[in-house]
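User: We ran a pulldown and think these components assemble together. Before we commit to crystallization trials, I'd like a predicted model of the whole complex to look at. Sequences follow.
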Amino acid sequence: MIALRYMLKEGEESFREFLSKVRENHSIEKPDLNKEPFSKEFLPGIIINDGVTFKTKQELAEYLNEVFETSGVKREDVIGNKGLWTWLAYIWFEQITNNRKNILKRNEHYICTSPSNYRRYYIHLIAPPYIIYSLYGLPLSKLFVYNPPWEINDFTERVAANQFLISHKNIIEAIYRLYFDESCGRPKPGAVSGDVEGSVRRFIKVIQQFEFTYDIYSMSSDQIIDLLPQEFNRWKNLKI
Amino acid sequence: MKRALNFTGRKRIERKNVSLQFKKRNNKVIGFVIEKIDLNGLELPDYALVYVEAYYRTELKRFKLGTIDSLTFPFEGNLDGMAYPENSKFRILVVNPSDLKILAHADKISPDEMTGKNAILPVQFTDLGNEIWRVEYEGDEGSPILLINEKIPPNFTRQDPQFLLFVYPAVLREILTHIVFIDKIDSTTEPTVDWHRNWLKFTQELGVEIPESLSVDDDNKNRDDILEWINKCVEEFCNKYSEKFQEYVKTFLGEI
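Assistant: Here's a predicted model for the assembly, 496 residues in total across the polymer chains.
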């Protein structure tokens, strides 16, 4: 167990240095950044389990959501704290790299960039699962949190990185109903493919056209799905 | 930024016809106030519904202002629960309630500042270690955000002559340099990136003429002209705040 901290600039630099070295040599030791000037304790004090195991991003998001809720910390107080997300990636590094077997190439998967740059923010491995889960809960966030913590999530990168889509609950509900297979606990095959009719890539393009014509916010997910052209018919079979 | 053709018949509510300001408490944004939305001349039906949306990234809050024939101003909305209320942009929609079609709209509205101008440089107070300030190009379309060390009191950053004189001219120089040499602005008259356009307009308001071209050729032929233009902008910016400079100089003379 360890007190929750947030990474400072020097800690971020040391973590960045570690990331470049560990890609070359998987057995190097992680530097101790749990002290100033590398990181600082988050206030109010929160104790987290640095040895907890998450099978999926959902488990990770649920854990954080519970920790913050129990401590009385609001979502809006943490989602913009990039140092916090970087520190969590540091402390759960073994978790989010599958014990160093899946270390991703881009540092932004581990080091959180400015939250105002949402396109890059959404490739972090810890912040987006919590941000989306805490916003929409289950089952709507499932597409974004179904896979292991060390993997990139295609839906996060395509949907969550689009301000209009991710901020509309009814659109997220429509996407969930169209593309998530509850019986398998994962997206339907071909849901994010570029060459499959009615895939989420096409959905995004179609919604971007509707956005100019319709008040999407006032629609139910049913109404959004009904508006979709024929190419989406094969996806329209799941009700929640 | 791609320009979209409007085949939908939606009407555009011009920015000048909207007066919207942030509401602050202890220097923190807590909400917004709309003083007016002038829809005259757009020929919209009285029964159409008017909404205002405040948004930023995953956050979106919608406010119903009522039908056109029932609008009353000022309208106040609170931004509780928004993670970055100070960065909120606003969208105004006029909707036909029967088919949910958008009849008129205005988007990407930034609130008026006290001076009545739009903010072109959002400021965020954050942990910068031992650094006083930094510009990050992380806003919409890579627009600049001025980060100031959170240990510095916000009032000080707005009033202290030394801070203003040391920081803001350097910020201006950095941003103009970024626009030309990093972003490689595509046009001086019709830049496709909104924030480039806003900053060029700002330099014009300083009284500095924009050079015919701001594109740096491979042989760097324009380089000196562009650097001279940037210097001139910074010079005029400092001239605009000459009173602050005089105030600063007085501190050496022991008059303050």
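The longest helix of chain A spans residues 9-24. That may be worth checking against your pulldown data before setting up trials.

User: Thanks, that helps.
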